[in-house]
Amino acid sequence: MASSGSLSGKILTVTGPISPDQLGTTHTHEHAVMDYEFMYIDVEKEAVRQIEREPMTLQNHGWVKQHPYSNRQNLQLYGNDWYSAVEEDLKFFKKNGGNSIVECTTMGIGRNIKKLKELSESSGINIISGTGFYLPGILITPDRPNKEILSSLNQKSEEEISAMLVSDIMEGADGTDVRCGVIGEVAISHPMTEVEKTVIKAVASAQNQLGCPVIFHPEDFRQCPFDIMRIFQEAGGLCEKTVMSHLDYIFFKPEDYLEFAEFGTYLELDFFGIETSNWDYTSGIDFINDAQRIQLVKKITEEGLSDRVVIAHDVHTRHRLMKFGGHGYSHILLNVVPKMLKRGIFQETIDKILTDNPKRWLTFK
User: Fold this and answer.
1) Domain 11-362: which topology?
2) Quick one: which of 249, 247, 287, 251 has its CA closest to 267?
3) What is the pLDDT of residues 294-340, one digit of tens each?
4) How many angstroms separate the CA atoms of 74 and 207, rounded?
């Protein structure tokens, strides 16, 4: 494998390469700058229709919490009052022992790597930015302003797509010299489209060239993570340098994690802080809560997988930021870790999940 000599043994943040020992406590799947409006769900009930257009307030926070994709402002991690909210949240995360986040916003959902660098510098938090494509969002909303991404990808070869990813890491993204440090989140639909299959193969090619970390976003169908990894593995992808995210909305039994763990990827539970059982997009899913997530972590780490678990909040809506009444980026450190200790998860295991595993994953080969 032709690993880049300039990045081998290092982690690449938006402010430049760092030593793995500088990473510290890390959440492996968050968003700070994002446009998620394509996920908007129209309100059918006339009595609450006005809420979709209202600014977020204490008065409507309870409703937004249950229906996060039916208030347009909630889907906008950008705008006049967004920056200060995220900046304050990241600073609070730093005060509580947080060091780094992997910011998984990619092409198709409003990545702004220049703003990520500004946030990193002002907050003191290491931010590792992602490159790749959020194709499901583009596919279901072909009239979006970034529809040219899909059109462009349909006309590109695997080699050309791989070169795009390599460029974002080695040269800079979005017309800047600020570089991405991970490929992903690469979002894949179910059933998978041909262009998504090509993207997966291109990701494997870029990873082999650079020795870089990769993170996938599977759609919420049990088969989807398996399908992604089979194609990725056949294309030569490095499973040991790859995270499969959102497993806590797909796998609800320890046995499911053990079965999927055969691929050798990192297993990510990244919806910590979501305590509502409602999931607007898939009525068949009863969303689990943090207590259940902790029990899953306990059981799968007791089965010898403590070296393969990573966790996060996947903050992607305003109502989860502290300024808008949410738990913020510090929730895991302030609330989840104490609960883990009370439930018999050892500090050594927690250190692996929050520090050692992210460090090993994010370090270029």
Assistant:
1) TIM Barrel (3.20.20)
2) 247
3) 999 999 999 999 999 999 999 999 999 999 999 999 999 999 999 99
4) 34
